[in-house]
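#dry-run=false #mode=assembly
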Amino acid sequence: MKANENMLQMPIPSQYGWGAVQRMALNWSKQLLFLLCLLPLARMALLFNEAVNPIEFITRSTGTWTLVGLLLTLTITPLRQITGWNRLLQYRRMLGLLTFAYAVLHFTTYLWLDQFFDLTAILKDIVKRPFITLGFAAFILLIPLALTSNNAAMRQLKRNWGRLHRLIYLIAVLGVLHYVWLVKKDLTQPLIYAACLALLLAWRVWRRR
Amino acid sequence: MLILQRSDILPSEITPQSVFLNRRQLMIAAAALLASEASAAFKAQPSHFSTKDAPNSLKQISTYNNYYEFGTDKSDPAENAGKLKTRPWSITVDGEVGKPRVFSIDELLKLAPLEERIYRLRCVEGWSMVIPWVGIPLASLLKQIAPTSRARYVAFETLHDPQQMPGQLTRSLQWPYREGLRIDEAMHPLTLLAVGLYGEVLPNQNGAPLRLVVPWKYGFKSIKAIVRIRLQENQPATSWNLAAPNEYGFYSNVNPDVDHPRWSQTKERRIGEILKRPTLPFNGYAEQVASLYKGMDLRKLF
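#status=ok
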C-alpha cells in the first residue's frame, strides 16, 4: 500500500521526448479505458426496452458490473507485482471511481425504480433481509473511498489514506456475499465471483509472508 | 341504375372495437402461428373464472420463464426448450384409485370441453403476470379414475429425460421435478390442467404438452410437462420444499402476510408495469379458496 502511494506521485521525467510520448500514451489509454467502462452502460440502455422485466434487468446488470469493477480494481496490484509494470497503478483510481458509479446506479435503481422511495419498506428490507443489509453496508463503505480518491485527499490523509482504502477488501467480500445470498438456488455465478475474489485476496496474503 | 347510399353501418360493427384495439396482439398471435408448424388453434369456451385484468403479451409470457430443466436464467427455457418432443406423450394416473389409467394427451383433451381461463400468476420471486390459459379442470380427470377414500393427496411428476432437458444434468434441483396438492385443492374448480396459451398449443417453455395451473399458489406449484399423477394417502415430497424447506412450504399459498425469509411478499411487480402493486391474499382468489384452509395456521403451514 505504501509503495503504491509513491507510485502514483512518481514524477514524469521530462517535458519532451520519450516522457511526452509516454504521457500521451497514458492519456489516450486512460480515455480508451474510460470508454470501455461505459460499454456495459450502453448495453443496458440498448436492451432496456427489450427486457421483459426491465427493472430487474437493470438491477442485475448494474450489480454485476459493480462486482466486476471491484474485482478488476483489486486485480491491478497483483498484475503490477507479477508484470513489474508499475504504470498499471495509474488506471486504478479510474477503475475504482467507475465501480462506484455503477454502485450508485445499482443503489438508485433499488431506491427509486424498485422501491419507489418507500422508506418504511426500505428500512424493513435493510433490517430483515441479510442480503440487502450486506449490499447496503458495502455501498455505504464505498462512499468514503470514492470521496478520497483524489490527490488532495491522499496528501491530507497521508498514511491513513492507505489504511482507509484497505476497506476495499471488506467491501468486496460484502458485495460477493450479497450476491451469494440473494440467489434462489443455482450458485454457479456467485461462486465464480467468490473464487476470483478468494484468489485475489490469497495473492496478497501470500505476498505478505 | 346505380344508386349510391350512405352507409349506415358503423366501422365498429364490422370490426369490434376490442378487436381493433388488440390488433397488435392479434398480429403477434398470427405471427406465432405461422412461425410454429406444430401449433394448432383450440376452440376454448370463455370462463367466468377469468380475470378482467389485461393479459400479458405472448412474448412476455413465453420469454420470461422459470423452468430449471432448461436452465436457471429466465431466458434459458425459451432458448432451450425447443428440443423437447411433446408428442407422443402419455400421462400415468395411478395410486389410490379405482381405475388407474395411462392417458395419451389426445385422450386427455377429450375429457372435458376446453376452457379459456385468464388467471393471475404470482411468482414467489415477487413478479406477476396475467395469462390466458387453455385447459380442462383437473377435477374432470380425477373423476375418471375414481379416487378411493384413502386418496388424500395428489402427487405430480415432470418428465425426467436429461437428453431432452439438459438442466437435469445439473444439480440445481432434485430431478424429476415434483409437486403436490391436497385432494380438495386438486378437485377445486379453479385448478386447471393447461394445454394451451392464447388459444394455441402451449409453447414448450411454458410447460407443454401439459401443465398444472393453481392460480392462488406461487407459480412453482404449477408443475410443467407432467408425465405422472399419483393419488396417495401421505403428503408428497415437493421439489422446492426439498431444496429449501424453510423457504418453500408444501402449501405455498400466495400470502402477503408471510414473507419469504429473504424477501418481502407484500407487493409484486406486474410484468409490464413500473410501480409495484399490493399482493392479495390467495392471489385475489380468496373468495373461492379461503374456505379450504379454515382453522389452519397459515403462518406455520406456509
